[in-house]
Amino acid sequence: DIQMTQSPSTLSASVGDRVIITCRASQSISDWLAWYQQKPGKAPKLLIYKASTLEGGVPSRFSGSGSGTEFTLTISSLQPDDFATYYCQQYHSYWTFGQGTKVEIK
Amino acid sequence: EVQLLESGGGLVQPGGSLRLSCVVTGLTLSSYAMSWVRQAPGKGLEWVSAISGSGGDTYYADSVKGRFTISRDNSKNTLYLQMHSLRAEDTAVYFCAKDTTTFLTFAYFDYWGQGTLVTVSS
Fold first, then answer.
1. Which of A55, A96, B14, B20 lies 20 to 30 angstroms, CA to CA, from A46?
2. B116 vs B8: CA distance, rounded Å
3. What span, in angstroms and rounded, lies between the C-alpha atoms of B60 and B47?
């Protein structure tokens, strides 16, 4: 089974900050990685797929990079609507999510 | 507009059964594989089960294999999850999620339902 590990688990940041979340896979997954945003009581929302492709309608301040086992999600300038929990997901072999990174107000 | 709406959650005793449904509108359901993903209270996301567009292929997480059955009725645009021998650790919000492919070739999920809560407790 492929394990996904995100860091940090919690991140405190201010509006306007640049935020970077890291996701590591236990084995190579090429670029079969997606990022989701989830707000309390809501369904996850797809942000990025194939490691770096932005889903339609997602603001360009979100970007993804990486391949193999190391991936990052970057928010270039944090906005009030971005305070949420973010999950990475591998879909190279079955589906596995990271444990999540909560982005909270500093 | 694509919409997914789950139902069927509730309180059930350990060892009991429950069937979840997910009605999908705004697309031809048979064109897409579908999955169930769950989230225990205060925890992260866990993939549970997947089914191909035709229903001919299914996958299960080890944690539910032999207890849960995924199925679909494309004529009713509905996905199901039959759950038996429920345990306290199955307590979670269950989301249905749409795959971006027809076959179970592993892809990301582009649409999700709002979820239905299953509570297993005596």
1. B20
2. 7
3. 8
> Is residue A71 left, alpha or beta, with left meaning phi > 0 and alpha meaning psi from -120 to 50?
beta
Contacts of A95 in chain B (CB under 8 A): 35, 37, 47, 50, 106
- The residue among B109, B114, B117 with the most chain A CBs within 10 A of its CB, best to mutate, is B109
Q: What is the pLDDT of residues B55-67, one digit of tens each?
A: 999 999 999 999 9
The pLDDT tens digits for B2-26 are 999 999 999 999 999 999 999 999 9
- Please answer yes or no on whether B110 and A98 come within 8 Å at the CB atom: no
What value does the mean pLDDT of chain B take? 96
The beta strands (E) that lie in A1-106 are given as: 4-7, 10-13, 19-25, 33-38, 45-49, 53-54, 62-67, 70-75, 85-90, 96-97, 101-105
Partners of residue B110 in chain A, C-beta under 8 Å: 46, 49, 55
**A85 HSE (CA, 13 A, CB side):** 21
Closest CB to A43: pick one of B35, B59, B114.
B114
In terms of CA atoms, which chain B residue is nearest residue A41?
B114
- If we measure between CA atoms, which residue out of A91, A98, A54 comes closest to residue A74? A54
Burial of B42 (0-12, 13-18, 19+ CB in 10 A): exposed
Residue B102 reports pLDDT greater than 90? no
